[in-house]
Amino acid sequence: MSDSYEFLTAHNIPSYLASHTEISTIVDHNAITEVKEVGDGNLNLVFIVTDKHGKGIVLKQALPYVRLVGPSWPMSPDRARIEYETNVIHAQSAKQFVPEIYFYDSERYIIAMEDLSDHKVWRTSLNLGEQNHGAAKSIGEYVARVLFATSIFGAGADAHYKGIARAINPELCLITENLVFTEPYFPADRNSYLPENEIDAKAIIEDSRMALEMGELKYKFMTCAEALLHGDLHSGSVMVKSDAKGNEISTRAFDSEFSFYGPIGFDLGACFANFYIALARATALRRKDHADFIAGLPGELWDSFEANFRALWPTRVDKRVFSDVLLEKLLSQWKFDAIGYAAAKMTRRIVGLAKTSDIETLEPAERIGAARGVLRSAQMAIRERHINTDLNSLTLKVRKIIDEVRTGEGN
Domain count of the chain? Predict the structure, then answer.
């Protein structure tokens, strides 16, 4: 790995655009009106460049370290290649749900892609109390389409095995393995929380059942190469565009640099977790109507995923032993897994590194209860899935826990 390549800046971007014919026509490098750095994520530089004609482009550059921490945490910028290739592959089966990619610079690890400034990050929209009708359904379809297409069912054996070899992503998988499945369940330097939530973090660490199930989930994450996952699918990696009434115009999934071949339930569970975190925020802010809306999102996303996967099933490459009976078992297993992965993600986002603005932007008095509600819901969900995987029922129980914590009944 070389860390000697030139980093993008507002100053050198015009000359960079001019020197690459693949993107020089997307925006006018001689008439740039704004270069805005929007890389508020944990890893990369991200610039939105616009010209006087109203055209725009996004340039995303992988740094040779974790941006959230700095050069003390080195990381291969080759993750940009993985994101680029995953986006191209996912576009083959779900083009309407991913940004258009114009160019990839393999020497400087830069992806040039469609400007989605007319969209809004879904997490931001949810934080503001907005309702985006249809977005969860679209993400469910996106997950079904890309995971079927890259699974053994849609791709066939040869393409599937070659895809696994291409998409090996050890450094970013290791981040997930540590931050999601390990550190929240043991005293770790990177864990943090409000002093008032220490009792809740301690309850997680002392929950031996939770640790056991995280071990099982982590093992499956590390060994089960079912399909080419997005790998970090949550409300912060989805862009939404809605009309004045909140009805969907466009929904796009982006930031797939954590992509790898893994268990199908993982992407689904990551979405469920972020819906429940958003639910905790809405409850803390006493936004009942918005909480009602959010409570319907897990079921809406799953129903869309299941319906679309079922619709694709008849096109599977090998019908000899991959029967309809097998599909029923797989769907049941994926939902069971997804609820477990949701519990892992919920816990990580409260006590681990890289938290969410849903909770962190609340006032401390509200944040304490919201964080407690999310953690207790995770402990409930990891057990409940062994009894009942109905998402509407699970969401009712999550909501009850979050409500009771907010009112003091659950303290």
Answer: 2
